Fold this protein.
Amino acid sequence: MKHFPTRKENLPLTLLLVGYFSFFSGIHLLLVGGMQQLVLNLNEHHLRLLKLLGGRYEKLYSGNG
């Protein structure tokens, strides 16, 4: 897993967040028949970071949010 910057590195908050959320590029939401949503290309590293970010973000990437 690649390194994630922290606030201890004295980065501006916007740059810190860009680093976190750019990690999720390449993840796609597939809508099947307008009823079912599938999240594609989500791996264990993404899931670990989502857990750290909290339930709100986990829900966004669950396919139900």
In short: The radius of gyration is 14 Å. Residues 7-60 form one domain. Residues 13-22 form the longest helix (10 residues). The beta strands are 28-32, 36-40.
